[in-house]
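In the design runs reported in the main text, the only information available to the sequence generator was the tokenized backbone. The following block is the verbatim input for one such run; it is reproduced so that readers can re-run the procedure and compare outputs position by position.
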């Protein structure tokens, strides 16, 4: 949470990602996203780039459990208008997923189901 917004923006750009989990003392403190930067830039201008990430991040973060279904995760993301979700097992973050990750996993699941159906039909 002590890094500057400028440093975090540089990391987002280098990795070509839209958000970062913010961990403080081993615990998830929040999420820093492109939108956080945009809103602050609109309000404060370039001065926000020298703020600490902890002042700008979204906190508390919206999270899901590993058991959460694709559909429930997508519904939550749509309802809350967010694109990234930490996956938490108790207090430990076990994954950090994007809406793109969920869509890809769902497409893979549907493709596998379709392939099983094709095989079943061909052997029937």
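Verbatim output:
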């Amino acid at each position: 949470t002590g890094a500057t917004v400028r440093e975090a923006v540089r990391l987002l750009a280098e990795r070509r990602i839209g958000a970062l989990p913010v961990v403080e003392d081993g615990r998830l403190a929040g999420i820093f996203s492109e939108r956080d930067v945009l809103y602050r830039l609109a309000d404060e201008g370039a001065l926000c780039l020298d703020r600490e990430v902890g002042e700008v991040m979204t906190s508390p973060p919206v999270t899901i459990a590993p058991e959460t279904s694709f559909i429930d995760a997508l519904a939550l993301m749509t309802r809350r208008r967010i694109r990234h979700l930490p996956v938490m097992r108790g207090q430990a973050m076990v994954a950090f997923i994007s809406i793109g990750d969920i869509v890809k996993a769902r497409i893979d699941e549907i493709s596998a189901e379709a392939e099983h159906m094709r095989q079943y039909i061909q052997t029937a």
